[in-house]
Design brief:
eight-stranded parallel sheet, alpha/beta, homodimer, 42% helix
Chain lengths: 375, 375
């Protein structure tokens, strides 16, 4: 397979960027939002529904898939694309974040991270080399280096230790990736310390990755830390490589980050919140659990291109959520994934047209206006 | 709205019948299987997926819908078709069966059945007249009379008491239904006693219903009771009315009953079993929980018209089931609903062609042959 990965910057508007990533499994238009398909499925969604929402790429989780059903098994079955019937692009994370967030017991050493599986309690070892091997077995289009991701706040010495370890793991990941198809992204660590962040980025740039990700955010930090971190890093991010903000975020987070030059996002918010009765819409979030929807015949958004947002009344969605029906989760996940993609498509068009700030302010104004009360 | 209900018998083959029910919401080809949409949703299915499986009609449950969200609320929102975004035909049951099976505390009196809601413990009353009113509020195309359905085995005196009460409720239902659009079916009771069953049917025929249903089966009786009951009743069922076997059954039950002259079925088996990892296929049932599927790249049935049966490996379905992923329930429900519809479509074509027995034996032989082991 040829090394098909390519990034083209098509337009800029201020710091905001409009681009195109080419992979062996199709083109990803950026800014891009990647739905999270943790266990080889975007929860509750048929692959054609994920595609129908506008997604060019989904994220798969190395941590989950290595534990169940296992990377070698997926490889024997033809790779992750075939396994989950998703012929489009896939980015896989390296497992670093989940080891921190899901495994109760873990030991980080120079050579490897060892952790207890949340499934059966078995001790499992993950090295930077094995993380690359797993992602290659999955057939990932974009692989991520193994990193150590720590919760914030944390002492500076601890932030620096984890950042330096992540850099050494980046080097080992890069070596292990040599000769493999697809792309490998480096992950910038350093917590809420701009100096450490910049040092991390500079060292990664020296290693020359296909793309650069900002990791270690959305881990308990104060709200302004994300903005400050991106602001500190953005001017130093290589212009000709994709910039990926990992694990972020709300619709507002996405627009703010696009404004600062971020190209790629993944987050469980649209899927997880959908399953819990919360819809993201042009007029801000709407909680379908709320009794005020019980008799409301209006759809969530009659102007949405998403059938789930326009063909079902709020009263029906409220009923499904209250009754614990799977279809409630399904419809609201569809609504949210569509809205996230609509937001990214809107951002892309606005950047091309040179009016991204106008788009952002109009979008924010609609959110602030809020949901219209029933007549 | 005109009284659009009409039944046309198109062909017979032995006792098996091929027909067509016309409703205000489209034509239902018989023999027909009706997926169960208890809480205004066929669990885990978008309405277009239910339609895509081949269903002309779904069943809605009066008991569940009267308790949540309430019949008056659904009426205010434009009726059940609009509420659940299902523009095709709907049959509603009367609540009698669920009062027996779901409500812990209940009191059956001449005037009404009073029961404790399984949702909030409130005492609720249901009269034959109210059951008709609820079904009219829902906008049902085919309504069912309120009956008393009792568990088997039961003493003859008890069977007769419940059957006689159900007949008096049938009369009241008939009167309450007068002038309303759509159809009302009477329900034959009498348990496992053929004499009581025939007495019930004769009395119902005197009242002249749009269709006749066999109730009170699939309630704990011995396997041969179903066959004996249908055999006893079949010759006496009016030829020009649909014959509906309530709450049945397995694919084998369906073919056996079609052979005896049954036109309509509903059952939770394809949906419930799908959610629990069991697929119905041309080669019999397949439990996807079984570890033997873990590395099997074959689809469930490469010759199926259902994408869920041919576009996903057994290994993937096994993974989804083991991981408790919603998509496993969704795909297996699709597989099962499609298989039930495929079976009914096959039966209809075979009856028209005058070779239903051949079709039945071939289908049974395929089931008996069982699932092919992986090579």
């Amino acid at each position: 397979m040829p090394d098909a990965f390519q990034f083209r910057l098509l337009a800029t508007d201020g710091a905001a960027r409009r681009g195109e990533i080419t992979t062996c499994h199709g083109v990803v238009e950026t800014p891009a939002f990647m739905p999270v398909g943790t266990q080889a499925t975007v929860k509750g969604m048929l692959p054609e529904a994920v595609r129908g929402s506008g997604a060019d790429i989904v994220l798969g989780n190395t941590y989950h898939l290595m534990l169940r059903p296992g990377a070698e098994r997926i490889a024997a079955l033809g790779g992750l694309h075939k396994f989950m019937n998703w012929p489009h692009a896939i980015l896989t994370d390296s497992g670093g974040f989940q080891v921190m967030s899901l495994s109760g017991l873990r030991k980080v050493e120079e050579r490897a991270v060892t952790f207890r599986s949340h499934l059966d309690g078995a001790m499992v070892e993950l090295t930077p080399e094995r993380a690359i091997e797993i992602q290659a077995l999955l057939g990932s289009d974009i692989a991520m280096q193994l990193d150590e991701c720590i919760a914030l706040p944390a002492p500076r010495a601890e932030l620096e230790r984890a950042m330096r370890l992540s850099l050494r793991w980046a080097e080992r990941s890069k070596r292990a990736f040599e000769g493999r198809p697809g792309a490998l992204f480096g992950i910038i660590q350093g917590g809420d310390d701009p100096e450490l962040r910049l040092a991390s980025l500079c060292a990664l740039i020296d290693m020359d990755f296909h793309g650069y990700a900002i990791g270690g955010l959305a881990v308990g930090e104060a709200p302004q830390v994300m903005r400050q971190t991106i602001e500190a890093l953005a001017p130093a991010l290589p212009v000709d490589r994709p910039h990926y903000l990992m694990g972020v975020g709300t619709p507002a987070d996405l627009l703010d980050a696009v404004a600062l030059g971020i190209d790629m996002f993944d987050c469980v918010l649209p899927t997880r919140n959908g399953r819990h009765g919360l819809a993201f819409t042009r007029r801000g979030p709407i909680s379908l659990k709320n009794a005020r929807h019980a008799e409301d015949p209006r759809p969530l958004d009659e102007a949405s291109p998403c059938p789930a947002a326009k063909d079902y009344s709020r009263a029906y969605l409220h009923h499904l959520v209250k009754a614990g029906e799977m279809l409630g989760s399904i419809l609201l996940t569809m609504v949210n994934l569509s809205y996230y993609q609509e937001l990214m498509a809107g951002a892309r068009a606005a950047i091309t047209a040179g009016r991204f700030e106008e788009f952002r302010h109009q979008t924010q104004a609609m959110w602030a206006q809020g949901d219209l009360p029933p007549r």
